[in-house]
Amino acid sequence: MDRSTWHSKRRRGRSRQHSPALRPCDSSERYNTRASQGPQDSGHPDAESLSASSSTTAESSAPDLPGFYFDPEKNRYFRLLPGHNNCNPLTKEGIRYKEMETRRLQLLQQEDKHRKKITRMGFNASSILRKNQLGFLNFTSYCRLAHELRVSCMERRKVEIQTSDPSALASDRFNFILADTNSDRLFTVNDVKIGGSKYGIISLQGLKAPTFTVHMHENLYFTNRKVNSMCWASLNHLDSHILLCLMGLAETPGCATLLPASLFVSSHQGTDQPGMLCSFRIPGAWSCAWSLNVQASNCFSTGLSRRVLLTNVVTGHRQSYGTNSDVLAQQFAVKTPLLFNGCRSGEIFAIDLRSPSQANSWKTTQIFHDSAVTSVRVLKEEQYVLASDMAGKIRLWDLRATKCVRQYEGHVNEYAYLPLHVHEEEGILVAVGQDCYTRIWSLHDAQLLRTIPSPYPTSKANIPSVAFSPQLGGPQGAPGLLMAVQQDLYCFSYNSSSPGSLGEGRWE
Hints:
Blueprint: H1 3-17, H2 27-37, H3 47-61, E1 68-71, E2 76-79, H4 92-112, H5 125-133, H6 139-152, E3 155-158, E4 160-162, H7 166-171, E5 173-179, E6 185-191, E7 197-203, E8 213-223, E9 227-233, E10 241-246, E11 255-260, E12 278-281, E13 287-290, E14 299-304, E15 307-312, E16 318-322, E17 327-332, E18 338-343, E19 347-352, E20 363-368, E21 373-378, E22 384-389, E23 394-398, E24 403-408, E25 420-423, E26 428-432, E27 438-442, E28 448-452, E29 465-472, E30 478-485, E31 488-493
Parallel strand pairs: 4-8
Antiparallel strand pairs: 1-2, 3-31, 5-6, 6-7, 7-8, 9-10, 10-11, 11-12, 13-14, 14-15, 15-16, 17-18, 18-19, 19-20, 21-22, 22-23, 23-24, 25-26, 26-27, 27-28, 29-30, 30-31
């Protein structure tokens, strides 16, 4: 083969290799593509939608080719190698993680620069005050919008935790946090470095600007079993105990433990008397709930595999209700003798505590999700129930009509047990997704008010645990959100840029 023939074949081979689908755009094409996208507004109301729109534009300009990945920064395709070896430099999981980490860092940068997200058009302090003065807003709507504005303006501050053993605090990772009814104490479950979990109570009475300092009271009581669920229990007085649901380990069965708050030194200003420490052997418990209903006083419930067990702490009497699926979430109603349950099958039903377990009429309300229910929250009037599932759906159900009346978009979940935090006084709903983002919605119209990124990279071990209260630190405390992740505790508090003093304002 002569050189001219060889060169002509080589040129034809190159032209076939550089097909339009794989050929990178030249400078003029890149300019036209960028110009067609239009200028990006730095004050976009939602950084998530901004990132989604940019990625959508990049994907639309570059067709998806099987086995290839298009990098919009380098404007070229890369081959995806099989993931069966440890030397693969590029995988779909790695690409997805890189994109999520980039977006998280961008949101954190916006948080640090105090760039506020405007959730509604014309939504600012001056417009709300002006509309209220002109009579366009009633008092209820004014308070609700003012609380939404304050939530969108919350600023992150790191909380200094004082403890008798600072070295243990630096190595032990927060697993759960749970605020009591008055929000002046925070019960914590920490993963110990040597294995197992230990408990503590943080006093929030010192949680005030500008220092944001709290004190942790620890105890030697710990366990090597996993904590599946927990709640505050009012046995001797309001929030006198903590109810813990522990999973069994090897030949050690699972149990539900009532842990007195008095075990923690000065946990309640020295007013606690020595409480009752008791443990009930319960196999395979997934969830637990304490009853504040007078018709089921001193009782708690545990959700088991295909069974609900109601236990009286004083008498030891038990009542069992058979179900068709594992019970993953529970909550007692206060005004009516009902216990609401969420199951792995997606069913949500209520148990009439007045009916014996042998009767056929103990199951009352029945509604259904398409995936496993992880959290059930009954609103105060007990006519509505909020529920979330493992498909990321959060729905508000009307119990009288047994239908979904509202859905809260944006939550991310695939398989994790993630709780809901409802605060009707502030008119907000808070949930942490499996992507480690904390999202806050308006309970009134399901508007997404705030998306808070985690200070740590996204991973299964770094999902934050949060607690929101309109009175952090007690009756004189300020509203805000507490976030525990890794060894750190953060406070997102309201600032003074919101409309005037609305301490008396409540959402109805």
